[in-house]
Amino acid sequence: MKPQIGRLLIKNSIFFQCDIQKRFGNLIWKMPNVIHVGKMMAMVSKVLKIPLIVTEQHSKVFGTTFEEIN
Q1: Could you list the residue range(s) of the whole structural domain that residue 51 is in?
Q2: CB 30 within 8 A of CB 68
Q3: What is the pTM of this model?
Q4: In sequence order, what E strands does 1-70 have?
Q5: 38 occurs within a structural domain
Q6: Most exposed of 20, 30, 36, 43 (fewest Cβ within 10 Å)?
């Protein structure tokens, strides 16, 4: 039996942003693009009322999420 992928529904969806933190700014290739996509995801989640989970790993060491995303 072949597995099937169901339709994506807003009520069954969630956005997840993982560790888009300031300390990684110079370490991640094309970080401005990552920040742009993170900002877009945050805006779309707000408009579509999809929950958004943002994680920060050791924010005292790595800094907080870029302000542009918040």
Answers
A1: 10-62
A2: no
A3: 0.75
A4: 15-18, 52-55
A5: yes
A6: 30
Distance, in Å, from the CA atom of 63 to the CA atom of 7, rounded to the nearest integer, reads 37
Residue 58 CA to residue 51 CA, distance in Å, equals: 23
Instruction: Let me know how long the chain is.
Output: 70
Is 48 inside a domain boundary? yes
Question: What is the C-alpha separation between 31 and 13, in angstroms, rounded?
Answer: 26
Q: Is residue 37 part of a domain?
A: yes
- Our count of domains for the chain comes to 1
d(CA 19, CA 36): 14
Q: How far apart are CA 36 and CA 5, in angstroms?
A: 29
